[in-house]
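pinging the channel bc i need a second pair of eyes. not urgent but kinda urgent?? the chain im working w is below, pasted from the shared doc
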Amino acid sequence: RMETDCNPMELPNNTAFEEDSDYTDFEGTEVKDMRLEAEAVVNDVLFAVSNMFVSKTLPCAEDVAYINVETRERNRYCLELTEAGLRVVAYDFDQTDDRLQTPYHETVYSLLDSLSPAYREVFGNALLQRLEALKKESQS
C-alpha cells in the first residue's frame, strides 16, 4: 500500500475518502475522519473565539479527536469530538478528566453558545453582517 504525505488543509472540502485509504499528515501520523472533522469545526468558528486548534498531544483516531479552545473570556477548554457530538473533557488545553460528566452538544455552535457569551455576540454579529450583505446583493 502506498503512503502519501498530505496536509489536510490542502484537501478540497468535497473530497470523498475511501474507508481503507490511508492519509498521513506532515508528522507521519494517520489522518482519519475525526481529525478532518475537527479541522473543519475549528475553521468554522475560529473567528469567534480567542484561540482554537486540534490537539497535537492527545491521540486522534477514526472515532475521536480533541480540540483546544480558548474563549474570548480567556477560559480554556479541551473538547472531545466523537460521533455523539462535542463535549468539554477538561478545563485546560490537551487534558482529559474522566470525572467530568459534561453533556454532548450536537454542534460546536451550541457548545460554544453555552460556554461563552462573547462567542454568542461575535457569532450573532457576523450572522447579521452576512444577512445584510445578502440583502444588498439581492437588491442590486
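so Residues 34-138 form a domain with the copper amine oxidase-like fold fold (CATH 3.30.2280.10). and The chain is about 30% helix and 15% strand. — does that match what u expected or am i reading it wrong
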